[in-house]
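Input (Fungal lipase-type domain-containing protein):
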Amino acid sequence: MLPHRRFIVFPFFHAIFWLPLQVDTKQAVRTINQYDEELASYLVGISSAMYCPASKLLGWKCVACSHAGPLQNTEVVSDSQNTFQGTVGYSSDRDAIVISFRGSSNIKNWIANIKFRKKRAYNEYPEALVHRGFYELYQKVAAQVLASIRKIRHEHATAVILLTGHSLGGAIASICAFELKLLHGLDAHAVYTFGQPRLGNLAFAKLVQYYVPNLFRVIHADDLVPRLPPSYLHYHHSATEVRKFHKLQIGVLLTSRLQILYGKFSEWYRICSADHGEDRTMEAT
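Output:
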């Protein structure tokens, strides 16, 4: 039920997986209504490509891009200083608009900086508070994202929307999906984030959970960043968390910005509560 409108590392271990794309049919995407490991594998490949230079992303021609699978009509969105970037592209294999945002090597600074306190950003829900830094960063690219979606939809009217991102990029992807629905009536077919930090307080988590029911936060049990900002500062995750338990392995560098690679997607995961973002039955965070 929709929350009442009156309130209505660094040592960290981030999960970037680099897997080839194999798609059977477009219908496979359209019928997703629960966590799907194949879709997660595809979107984590898209997330890893975000660490490539913008010049390579424009033509979707970096090495990580080729491993992720083809995208057409790819446009890069960025802030005015080009310190943050994402892409919006079209997958003909999936008939999907694929939106992804890059992570950051200094995510702890983003989270901890005193300037980035929680913000009351949505007047309709005054009790919902969102991390100021994450919110303000998304606003710098929001208009670009919306314009790119409309441009692709003009040519591919039936395309669904998929969003993804790693670390900071996961936070921005979640806010993007939330605002696309809240402000523009655009549904995200699925949102898969990797190593995403908490976004705001409990009221905001409930709003995200209502407006973006197909959000899956994939984390590793040993990853620090999903535990930040800490819950004692009244930050709270939205559902649904997918927790990986396979042993961390040092792997090949995907880019100069990425230092640690999980092993690979495997059977060693558990899906947490679909009703509560902080599933204490899994283990305290």
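The chain has one domain: 26-271.
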